[in-house]
Design a protein that fits this description.
Archaeosine Trna-guanine Transglycosylase, Chain: A, domain 4, globular, seven-stranded mixed beta sheet, Transcription Regulator spoIIAA, single chain, Rossmann fold, 393 residues, 20 strands, six-stranded mixed beta sheet, 3 domains, binds S-adenosyl-L-homocysteine, alpha/beta, 11 helices
């Protein structure tokens, strides 16, 4: 068994059960990609069993803090079962659900989503990569399914020194699927869509948006960064008269229009714009065009804290413009999915945007990722998605 020894004082985060070991914390030791190492404090005390990543800044990710634990196939089979069974306790009103959410489920570097009878997995860490076959079989055994598609094409794979890998890993089937969520259906493509094909993490927010549309009788809705139209369909399902949806991806917009049709909504209730959100918001402001509900769900502007400053300006810009074109009494659902922007900082950015737009509002709800994208006490980085629901004064 190979060992890595930490520098003095660097054991503290592991003692708090935080599962990452940065390159800079290691005094000596190493191993092959994905190999299990024993992690020790500077004076040789056991701290954790971890998967080694020779080329990543996060040089090792913890599998277990229990010295007696063996990191073998039964360990991964049990971990997959625990993660999947935990979902029975979560309120998920959909047949699309995240079954494994990396660190938060004790399986760093592994993401698994279920869409109906199909699993889609991302093996993002060297450890998950090394145990891929065991994990794939365990996931199928626990769910009783036969089809697993691999989408290991996220940019983080290259930070781990791993090549892209996509395609059927177990079984075979269609890659165009239809998901049932709350009162609606959404088509997605697991081979070509973003992430594993869909943004399951916004499920609860889409529900709340539909609730607001119904209660407040939305007339003119603007869905910015609409992707495949999740919030568009939610608003229409809640009875919104008309939704304008903007995205810069042609294929996403095609799917969004198809999703409006799939749910039986009249095409004249939806307009799609293949455009840049920032430029469109400016254009609406200059034309004096207003909306009584707006969604701002941009891509990750700040993947890490290092990008936070530039990202903060980008978030402030779109929020300021959105406030300007929001009717008094109108509702803004605004989000950041950047790990590098804390909930507190996001609130400050939105406050600054309101100041600049000379608009005040009531924060009526704080939103987060759906519960199957859990945040745990020991891993605060798990809180990546945060949102504010604001009713303009
Ligand atoms: N709200 C969506 C997810 C949004 S993901 C849902 O519920 O499913 C972010 C989207 O922003 C992507 O579809 C991406 O194509 C789009 N995008 C990124 N930059 C953009 C820009 N500058 N203007 C318009 N759309 C953009």
């Amino acid at each position: 068994m190979k060992t890595i020894r930490l520098r003095e004082g660097k054991e503290r985060s592991l003692q708090r059960r935080h599962p990452w070991i940065f390159e800079s914390a290691i005094a000596r030791g190493g191993a092959d990609s994905g190999e299990t190492v024993r992690v020790e404090s500077h004076d040789g005390k056991f701290l954790a069993w971890a998967a080694f990543s020779p080329s990543s800044k996060i040089r090792a990710r913890v599998w277990s803090f229990d010295e007696a634990q063996r990191i073998d196939a039964p360990f991964f089979i049990a971990a997959c079962a625990r993660s999947i069974r935990a979902r029975a306790r979560f309120d998920v009103q959909s047949d699309g659900m995240r079954l494994v959410h990396g660190e938060s489920d004790g399986l760093p570097g592994l993401i698994v989503d279920r869409y109906g009878d199909t699993l889609v997995a991302q093996f993002m860490g060297s450890g998950a990569e090394r145990w891929k076959d065991v994990l794939a079989d365990a996931l199928l055994a626990e769910t009783g399914l036969t089809k697993l598609y691999e989408r290991s094409d996220a940019s983080s794979r290259s930070l781990e020194g791993l090549p892209e890998a996509t395609g059927w890993l177990r079984g075979e089937g269609p890659t165009e699927l239809v998901l049932r969520e709350h009162d609606w259906q959404l088509g997605l493509n697991i081979a070509e869509g973003h992430k594993t094909g869909f943004y399951l993490d916004q499920r609860d927010s889409r529900k709340r948006f539909a609730d607001h549309a119904r209660r407040l009788n939305f007339q003119r809705v603007l869905n910015c960064f609409c992707y495949t139209g999740g919030f568009t369909v939610a608003a229409l399902s809640g009875g919104a008269a008309h939704v304008t949806s903007i995205d810069s991806s042609g294929p996403a917009l095609e799917k969004a229009a198809a999703n409006v049709a799939l749910n039986g909504f009249a095409p004249e209730r939806a307009t799609f714009m293949d455009a840049d959100v920032n430029a469109s918001l400016r254009q609406f402001a200059s034309e004096g065009r207003t909306f009584d509900a707006i969604v701002l769900d941009p891509p990750k502007f700040a993947p890490t804290v290092a990008h936070a400053e530039r990202a903060a300006r980008a978030y402030k810009d779109i929020n300021r413009l959105a406030f300007k074109i929001l009717e008094p009494g109108g509702v803004l659902f605004t989000y950041s999915c950047s790990g590098g922007i804390s909930a507190d900082l996001f609130h400050k950015i939105v406050a600054g945007a309101g100041m600049d737009a000379q608009v005040d509002g009531f924060i009526t709800e704080r939103m987060g990722g759906a519960p199957d994208h859990p945040m745990t006490i020991n891993f605060p980085e798990g809180e990546y998605l945060k949102g504010l629901v604001i009713v303009r004064k």
